[in-house]
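Example record used in the benchmark description.
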Amino acid sequence: MISKKIIFLFSILFFSLNLFSQKDSIKVKKKEKLFVQEGIYKPLAPSKAAFYSAIFPGMGQIYNGKYWKAPIVWGALAAPTYFYLTNNSEYKRYRTAYKLRKTGFQDEFTDDLGVVSVSLETLERAQEQLRENRDLSIMWGVILYVLQIVEASVNAHLLQFNTDDNLSLRPTFVQDPLIFDAPKVGFTLKYTF
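Model output (structure tokens):
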């Protein structure tokens, strides 16, 4: 019973989007005049957005006017940075313990009585795994850095296209004229040029 209510509410919300898609014709005409006066295509906008993103991550998104994307970029780049720093510090810790043990000194994994809590092989495997994790963090950081530059440039390109209501999705109910008692669910995509 609850799932039927949730489905009903979801369908009401989804199909009510068409109610809010009405636009004022006066504002549309002013917008068209604005495009004619300023010109639609700015050839340097994508390169500026990419340059700003390369200098400071998230700045290209801010330049494009997509302010909400900047914290996402910062968070996406903060995650690999955090994992790099933690894996690097742990790697150095295990590396120091390994070097001390190989030279015969007491390390942090050996107590005062000489009881070893971590074996030499475990220290070697931990170093290898932490180094691999550290390198993967660097790789993901570079990939995300490049992706945010590409995203800013592509978004600047796409902002220059003139889009109107003919490209929007308008979901509607269409009843089958032959069968009235059984409702049918379907999807129709209508586009015009």
